[in-house]
Amino acid sequence: MNEPSPPSESAGRRKAPDMYDVARLAGVSQKTVSRVVNNERYVSDASREKVMRAARELGFRPNTAARALTTGRFHRIGVVSLSTAGWGPASLLVALERGVREAGFSFSVAHTTEGRPQSMQEGIDRLLEQGVDGIILSEPIDEPQGRRFEADVPIVSLGYTDGLPPKSVVPTDAHVVADGREATDHLLDLGHAKVWHIAGPQNWWAARERLEGWRQAHLDRGIEPPPHIEGDWSPASGYEIGKQLAADPEVTAVFCTNDDTATGLILALTEAGLRVPEDVSVVGFDDIPAAAYLRPPLTTVRQTFEADANQAIAALLSRIAGAPDFDLEGSDGDGSDRPLIIRASTAPPWRHRGAPLPERRGAPIERTDS
Amino acid sequence: MNEPSPPSESAGRRKAPDMYDVARLAGVSQKTVSRVVNNERYVSDASREKVMRAARELGFRPNTAARALTTGRFHRIGVVSLSTAGWGPASLLVALERGVREAGFSFSVAHTTEGRPQSMQEGIDRLLEQGVDGIILSEPIDEPQGRRFEADVPIVSLGYTDGLPPKSVVPTDAHVVADGREATDHLLDLGHAKVWHIAGPQNWWAARERLEGWRQAHLDRGIEPPPHIEGDWSPASGYEIGKQLAADPEVTAVFCTNDDTATGLILALTEAGLRVPEDVSVVGFDDIPAAAYLRPPLTTVRQTFEADANQAIAALLSRIAGAPDFDLEGSDGDGSDRPLIIRASTAPPWRHRGAPLPERRGAPIERTDS
DNA sequence: GTTGAACCTGACTGCGCAGTCAGAAATTCG
DNA sequence: CGAATTTCTGACTGCGCAGTCAGGTTCAAC
Fold first, then answer.
1. Mind listing the pLDDT tens digit for each residue in B159-215?
2. Chain A within 8 Å of B295 (Cβ-Cβ)?
3. Are residues A52 and A122 part of one domain?
4. Contact map slice: A 50-109 vs B, CB within 8 A
5. Alpha helices, DSSP H only, in A27-154?
6. CA B165, CA B154: separation in Å to the nearest integer?
7. Does residue B68 reach within 7 angstroms of strand C, measured from its CB?
8. Does one domain contain both B345 and B232?
9. Which residues on chain B are in Cβ contact (under 8 Å) with A260?
10. What pLDDT digit, counting tens, does each position of B257-296 carry?
11. Domain residues for A92?
């Protein structure tokens, strides 16, 4: 009601109210205001009520800088991410922000500079300069020369990275390899003799793991995998590599390191007169929203961004809280959620062109809905 | 060399060095250290050198909280974004981070909570609580009841939003309408009588503008536009709406509010036995990386994320610096960069099914490379 | 040599908050 | 009823830094 009109009403922007202002209005001490704001014990209901009313009336907002200064905690998590808008990295970022927010922390991002070595360390440095309690490395890529990351706060990496300080490292290790293996197994189970692989840049951890899963799937059956071909995640690279693969009659099945690459590949195959899946089966990775609506709808591996993000955050928070080495085992899923989404881009090998199309065309096709 | 071993070497984590530590080692006062760190004038080369050496030796990092406390500036820009990994929002976020970083500011993100009204204001509140010097609203959507956004720092919106404080508002207004118009004009110029429109959710500013451009393109020619259909940006909604459109023989051209929707649409048309572009032409929006590799390669409108982001940042920084109403006119491009990328999904109307395919199939097709 | 200006430096202070502690008031217990 | 305990409160302090100011030094100009 009676607005305590600020002393200098004439000035442009009046000073933000601090705890002393609230205390004065409420008739208590600054320390009591602090207690109320931080929900501490030992404040009478009467005082609490008065303070809250005064704070609301003044529009009081605690000053984070001052709080951080006295507590030494910033209440902020930093994330180093790649400067790409690709589905994978972007989804991870969204999941991380959500998890961090729900944990009550602020969220800072430092993107790496594209094509710049050591840019992960630079990202870490920028985060440290602005003040964070912990750092998450999303989509880690290798630093040159196996350099060690340096930081005086806990670091957690979503996926393995060499050179991490002792704290660190994360969950997802095992299952990404498993995912790559499952995709490959699916194709081998269909009867394909070998599965070709369009890999991602091998300085990315995720790309390496998928390749490793693909390799293992072959070796487990005593098959020598064909040489893999390295792309750059883009549809363009999938298209270019696809033109090569289309020329090789031995190629009947391809596992792509992501859905974008698969999109380019399919176009190249089609332009070469090959049919998917009748002549060549294709598996992607990511399950981007459009995957179910490509022609043909793409068999792919659905990523578990939410779960990965939450594991990373849990690990980081426990380290921030002081646990020297939080044990994460057991939380690693056993794969019961079946990340492989089988759609119409995979089928048994055909290998005789011109054969009549199978009836799949009008068959019901699973579309993702999550 | 002679490492000044910290007093309590036994303790786990030793206290981070402050300016007094550096000053002691360098043989100067704390204030001089402050001067060197902030690159102020009036420091002798000798002092500067000593301080820098000492700072490096101790691994000194200025404490942002203390600095923010004394200066009242956080050196941080906050962005409120949608919690989606879609190409558009994610690209904007990447561009914004880059621009903010280059301006020497830190970058905080607050995502909105999906499906929650008032979540933009909540995002703003979260940013204000953690301390930012200014806020950018990326991909603004309407708040319920035309509520005014409240903040005691400058806000800039990437696209118009009702209820913004006087400071605010941005650049892109004009050209997004123009983009929608250009896409539609392209189809009308090809000879289509009308262009159907799969719109985005109309509480999104971007979706409204594109629809408006589509509408204007019709009205300018004295054509009554057909009713638009509202999707939700997803391929799924494009597919569902596509099934309706496929049943209407009048439909020969569709402008989709984004490339994902177009992807779903094309599948629905294809499944209905229609050919793109022979029976129906399709234009998308965004120019996602896969757009050039769909079948057919998609005619679409390329977004100008970098430019938009930079304009928003420039506007925000100038307001932070004190300019009450920075005038942005003139910076609005005149369209000389031709955002419409014409590929193979658009052609003149055919309208007699079963006609021989035109020769486009093998024709060279532009692929984006930027 | 004197005057002034530019240059350089450090003591002191306050930013807004939470930690510490001493003490008052209310409650429980023997 | 007094003693021990719990609850409540505020004075005081320091976190690490940059702003202010006073003083000292150097240099050029008169």
1. 776 666 555 566 565 677 888 999 999 999 999 999 999 999 998 888 998 999 999
2. yes
3. no
4. 61-69, 74-76, 83-87, 90-91, 93-94, 97-98, 101, 106-109
5. 30-37, 45-58, 64-71, 87-102, 119-130
6. 8
7. no
8. yes
9. 289-290
10. 999 999 999 999 999 999 999 999 999 999 999 999 999 9
11. 70-157
